[in-house]
Design a protein that fits this description.
Rossmann fold; 7-stranded parallel beta sheet; 44% helix; 15% strand
Length: 226
């Protein structure tokens, strides 16, 4: 690794927005640390991008600690941490299953908080950048959507982290995608954004000079109504 090579850690990196961001970050010269629960796609992507693959369930604190320890041991630093892991559920308080709900809330909310905690000291050391994947659903409630509730929590978490880290040099950005063609949808809506559209927004935020903190980026398809 080059002496001053920057390191970009991404959870939920094996597909969708995480994968697209990994490709953009690697192209921008970052060493990428890619974390997800499923090792197969993750390891293939890491090999392609000359990155580091770390199998990690973000709901497990010990695994998040191990993720950060491997990143620091093998890459020396963490400059950007992108808490991106998450998934959705159907819109109904009578739909899905309590087990699915539990896994979603733990991943989307608790998992993101654990990523902040695990990466905190390394980001302060590098005066780095924390990003979280929110959603347009975290700005307006959707009927019967517990997923929307989890993204409201992420909106609050991003601002809470920004306030706590004020004065450390760490920047905090909430990325809020509208309809995006990812595994979230069984059938992507017409006109949906590509994952790479969101990745470009991520890279815009991290490419700003150190005195500029882009706190929120809401990205909708041009034709999205809500």
């Amino acid at each position: 690794m080059a002496e001053r090579e920057r390191v970009f850690l991404i959870t939920g990196a094996s597909s969708g927005i995480g994968e697209a961001t990994a490709r953009r970050a690697a192209a921008a010269g970052y060493r990428v640390v890619l974390a997800a629960r499923s090792p197969d796609k993750l390891e293939a992507l890491a090999a392609e991008l000359d990155g580091l693959a770390v199998t990690c369930d973000v709901t497990e604190w010990e695994q998040q600690q191990a993720m950060v320890e491997r990143a620091l041991t093998e890459c020396g630093r963490i400059d950007v941490a992108f808490a991106n892991a998450g998934f959705g559920a159907g819109r109904s308080f009578k739909g899905s299953t309590p087990e699915h709900w539990r896994a979603m809330v733990l991943t989307n909310v608790y998992g993101a908080a654990l990523t902040i905690r695990a990466c905190y000291d390394a980001l302060v050391e590098s005066r780095g950048h924390l990003l979280l994947t929110g959603s347009v659903a975290g700005r307006r409630a959707l009927p019967g959507s517990l997923y929307s509730c989890t993204k409201f929590a992420i909106s609050a978490m991003g601002e809470a982290a920004r306030q706590e880290m004020n004065g450390t040099g760490v920047r905090v950005t909430l990325i809020e995608p509208g309809m995006t063609d990812t595994a979230f949808f069984d059938q992507p809506p017409a006109g949906a954004l590509a994952a790479d559209d969101i990745a470009r927004a991520v890279m815009f935020a991290v490419s700003q000079p150190p005195h500029v903190d882009v706190n929120e980026i809401l990205v909708r398809p041009t034709e999205q109504e809500g």
